[in-house]
């Protein structure tokens, strides 16, 4: 929502419930579920509040406040289950959701794989993750920073005519999960962000680019001025872009776009895709699936990590885990349910993965560019042309063309195509330019011999 109140108006003033309060609600709800006929049950409650302020054309564009509260309860009667959710966290609202879940469970088909994760797998203790660092940011403070952010972009070069907005945002959240094994726990977390999209114009051409920073602690954010200037520099670097030739050539993914490549890999080794036979990596454990330079690991207990958690969505303990080691697939990504479907051990990944790291190589980004000779450096990807069933890959791309190991010209309206299985095996090098401000930390990745479609 856009709010035109005075910028000194305090943000969402209703305090968040404490983790202790949410745990008490869960214990009461789970007890009610057992007393009313559920064999087992699990539930989650969350609450968050956020402030986002955007500046545009050197003035305030919007002040947005958000406050969300939700709960979900799942009950099991034998192998039948019922699930219901609500945004009403009052005793009456939670009771109504429970009754709805119990009713649904009476009519659903039995599922042999349904149920809580094993009690022995519940998280017992985990290190302090340092995820909650609220930012005492008033709307006026946020607006001042947003204006500084935009001004840095606009004043960087005369060819930066405007922005699509510069935003400063902060969010605090608390969530709790519990089940009838006796596991009940809460986590409190904050997330802060800066972003700016700059628009550059020259000789009738226009290009836009974004710079973004996010962190658990405001002190870990990039400088607002540096972020604005980076957005401007990226937009300026795209001026004069043209379509590259159609050819076969190496493709260098910068860290921003390399994340999507590893995201496709994680999706392909996730339980849902595997048990539905919708993955090109089914039955590949302990087999080489990528070049030996590729290693991917999970680190759920990283302090201030954007993907840190002590337990997964089933209450199962999270652990450090090698997913790919020297090109060999070592682990799938499974929840209690998908592990049962596949007849495999639970990996504690209900809800996804937690802080992934791609191991860096020795070469700098500049060395990778010089070493590729002729090819495409990709800084932006567009479209969703990825088929995880067979690995086929085709996406729109922008970036810059390389000739004789040097940057030649900016590129737009290109398409890169291949097959994910082939692409992973064709990784020629990974850089040492890891971007750390992300849940998935990766350096640049050089892939040999992709199809580049252009003019």
TrEMBL record:
Residues 132-239 form the Metalloprotease TldD/E central domain. Residues 41-105 form the Metalloprotease TldD/E N-terminal domain. It comes from the Bacteria. Residues 247-454 form the Metalloprotease TldD/E C-terminal domain. GO terms for molecular function: metallopeptidase activity. GO terms for cellular component: cytosol. Signal peptide: none annotated. Gene3D superfamilies: PmbA/TldD superfamily (3.30.2290.10). One of its GO terms (biological process) is proteolysis. InterPro entries: Metalloprtase-TldD/E_C (IPR045569), Metalloprtase-TldD/E_cen_dom (IPR045570), Metalloprtase-TldD/E_N (IPR002510), PmbA (IPR047657), TldD/PmbA_N (IPR035068), TldD/PmbA_sf (IPR036059). PANTHER family: METALLOPROTEASE PMBA (PTHR43421). NCBIfam families: PRK11040.1. Belongs to the peptidase U62 family. This is Peptidase C69. The lineage of its organism: Bacteria, Pseudomonadati, Pseudomonadota, Gammaproteobacteria, Salinisphaerales.
